[in-house]
Amino acid sequence: MTDDSLNRTPLHALHLELGAKLVPFAGYTMPVQYPMGVLKEHLHTRARAGLFDVSHMGQVILRPLGDREALDAGLERLMPVAVVGLAEGRQRYGLLTNDAGGVLDDLMFANRGDHILMVVNAARKFEDIAHLRAHLADVAEVVPVTDRALLALQGPAAEAALARLVPDVAAMRFMDVISVTAVFGELWISRSGYTGEDGFEISVPDPQAEGFSRALLAMDTVAPIGLGARDSLRLEAGLCLYGHDIDEGTSPVTAGLTWAIQKVRRSGGARAGGFPGAARILEELETGPLTHRVGLRPEGRAPMREGIVLWDAPEGGSAIGKVTSGGFGPSVEAPIAMGYVPAASAQTGTRLWGELRGKRLPVTVCALPFHPTNYKR
Amino acid sequence: MKYTEEHEWLRVEGDVVVVGITDHAAEQLGDVVFVELPEVEAMVAKGDEVCVIESVKAASDILAPVDGEIVEVNEALSDTPGLVNEDPQGDAWFFKMKIDDLSVLDDFMTEDEYKEFLG
Hints:
The complex is a heterodimer. By secondary structure, chain A is α+β, with helices and mostly antiparallel strands.
């Protein structure tokens, strides 16, 4: 089951040793699950701590050519997000937008003093790097990080586990970033993740990645977790998956990501607009978007997956929307989904019907997340 | 016990055939979270999609292995779909079929042949 055309992460040999089932994902061969299985891996992460290999994601350094202010201002011309004013040692969620107000990618960016570190989606990293180079050529050098693995340690036991190797992490708050030189080289650590749980993402030099992972996995609270559980965890947390819940056709406002657009970038703010798609995005912020991303709870036990058409009536009526992510929520113990529906059908409690195998089955619009988040604010 | 190329097992009990999925199939599916069973008394033809299995990963079908009538379904799977992973070749049978001629089962694989088929 190995394909030579696929990239391998520095943890490939360890995945094989741990009995992972590997699948192609964004040009990499990645563990979708380990022998524990998706369901138990999911529940283990919520109860204790899960270790994820996310080395396929893009780590990109933006190093200012001149003064740092020019880089921050340049980045604000690509994202509807405040870059200026992000304190050193802090990370923020960002979105690259296009001229139509759609999303080119969603990402994390951190102020690491003399540079900005971005973590972008695996499937978008080459496009992102080209886009950043094209638009920031005057203000920054865009340097892909190619010699580091990226690991995520997520769950209520993550802090205690990581603190045994790196005591400094205990003092971090949600979205703090630090650099620490430890036994495993220089680690770039953020207190963040993609599961709704407290946890960390750790960038570790390639040669130390396996040793670092083994040290964590040796602790009885830590288990290896595959991309299957990563998907069900993020879905329960109501988090978007690029290419599914958000893409070049969805604006940040229709996607319900308005919290990521600070006041200072909105109409009336000191640095309002000036990013691609500002006309649409600012108007949607004022008047409300035509469609909304919503949570959906199918009645019964049958999961409704991506692509399921949503109707406004059990028979007849109109097709009004679509499921963009869906499956079974192991912590919710029920099927859950997200999708887009017109504003008029987006209120919590609205009953819709999803067409599954030729039958229309009822679903209820609900608030996100499905499972309460547990960040260390 | 007989085996199909669709990774189902067939066991004769008197004049009915009990149908389930193999250990291998359950392992490949991953954690099963939903099972839709056929109607009792339904007449089905070989190759008909008679059950839907949804795992954490994807949906798949169970096909009728032969022509016949569904005479009983395993209701326990509706409430406890995880049984399919725990005991696929025992408690987690899916349905029982009445068929005219049990000799049609001779065409299916023996356990040894199925093991060879899996490779």
